Amino acid sequence: MSRIPVAVLGATGNVGQRFVSLLQDHPIFRLAALCSSDRKVGGTLAEHWRLEDIPLDTEVAAMELQPLDPKVLTHAGAVAAFSALPADIARDLEVDVARAGIRVFSNASAHRMEPDVPLLVPEVNPDHIALVERQATFKAGGFLATNPNCSITGLVLALKPLADAFEFTEVHVATYQALSGAGYPGVPSLDVVGNVLPFIEGEEEKMQREAKKILGAWSDGIVPSPIEVWANCARVPVREGHLEAVSIVLREDVSSEDIARVLAAFRGAPQRQRLPTAPKQPVIVRTERNRPQPLLDGMAGEPARARGMAATVGRIRVTGRNVRFFVLSHNTLRGGAGGSVLNAELAHRRGYLA
Ligand SMILES: NC(=O)c1ccc[n+]([C@@H]2O[C@H](COP(=O)([O-])OP(=O)(O)OC[C@H]3O[C@@H](n4cnc5c(N)ncnc54)[C@H](OP(=O)(O)O)[C@@H]3O)[C@@H](O)[C@H]2O)c1
């Protein structure tokens, strides 16, 4: 089977480089174009590569960075484009790319909340992908599909099996978010070295509204979930991996064993359909009292292609109806590029890339 040509928009950024690392040897997709801002057009990705532990494929390293222009993508024969652009740039450009008949899998927040745009975590809401059929560009092949903010992805992976097994409507969460979540070069070093910043613009609101859409039911469109996520978000001096302290009050008494069992048993469409980037177990439960940690658990997930795609839950404590735990997920993999690649694998399996 010949591999499907794809492009990366914003290939030089934190998420863009993760896209390239996942796509340069992908069994279904083949990199056909790498696009960057005008500042870097004409150069190569090798000049800007920061994933020091992941070698850049020689052919990909030699590819010239191209301008962000739908004509460039059409000329390269791209069937799909993975977007890692800032929201203000993504807003119009992604629509133009979809109008050119190209399937766009985006990390940007620009279109996430539009009623006909799916906001996907494939283990949680795979059927929401059908929303793409309502988009004006769909008949000519193009569409937009998004993945959520990096701080909500790990949380909803844990909330979905709990919401299926127990009743609750409020979740309180405090986040300890990595620096790479702020893009490159991100937060000024003098603000964050030896410090914690208790404010991330727009993040708490995004967590609340995106959770409602992702966990929402499907009934001729998405019916928002009644679950409210009340977040306190902080940026901490960690490179990668968002750690979150979660508190939920259930309607019934449970035991910590019940919670651990439900989380560890969770499997979704990507696992059943063995999608290439799907982790065998989307939520890994640790019992050590000092886990999960970004350094030790950020890259959780197997097989090798799915490293960084599992969320890790630990320190489960239950008192009657009160449940507390920590959840950790990799922000640029599970919460960024890996999430989008898994969306595209789901779309491919459901015939949307034909
Ligand atoms: N980082 C995360 O954990 C994460 C997770 C989920 C979603 N997201 C979202 O994913 C998107 C990318 O995030 P990131 O962290 O990868 O950001 P980033 O490191 O700042 O990368 C942004 C990319 O967009 C390009 N770009 C910036 N300004 C541009 C302009 N004016 N015109 C054209 N291209 C421009 C950059 O090119 P240059 O290199 O030339 O500047 C770079 O390739 C954002 O929308 C973000 O909110 C991020």
Describe this structure in words.
The protein is of the alpha/beta class and 354 residues long. The chain folds into two domains: 4-149 and 337-349, Rossmann fold, CATH 3.40.50; 150-331, Dihydrodipicolinate Reductase, domain 2, CATH 3.30.360. 28% of the residues lie in helices and 21% in strands. It has eleven helices and 13 strands. It has helices at 14-23, 58-61, 70-75, 87-99, 150-165, 189-192, 203-214, 256-265, 269-272, 294-297, 333-349; strands spanning 4-9, 29-35, 80-83, 103-106, 143-146, 170-177, 217-218, 222-223, 228-235, 242-249, 283-285, 311-319, 322-329. The strands form three sheets. It has a six-stranded mixed beta sheet. A five-stranded parallel beta sheet has the order 2-1-3-4-5, with helices on both faces. It has a two-stranded antiparallel ribbon with strand order 7-8. Helix 1 (14-23) crosses helix 11 (333-349). The radius of gyration is 19 Å and the shape is globular. The two termini are 13 Å apart. Bound molecules: NADP nicotinamide-adenine-dinucleotide phosphate. Residues 10-16, 36-37, 39-40, 68, 84-87, 89, 107-109, 150, 180-181, 183-184, 331-332, 335-336 line the site of NADP nicotinamide-adenine-dinucleotide phosphate (NAP). NADP nicotinamide-adenine-dinucleotide phosphate binds at residues 10-16, 36-37, 39-40, 68, 84-87, 89, 107-109, 150, 180-181, 183-184, 331-332, 335-336.
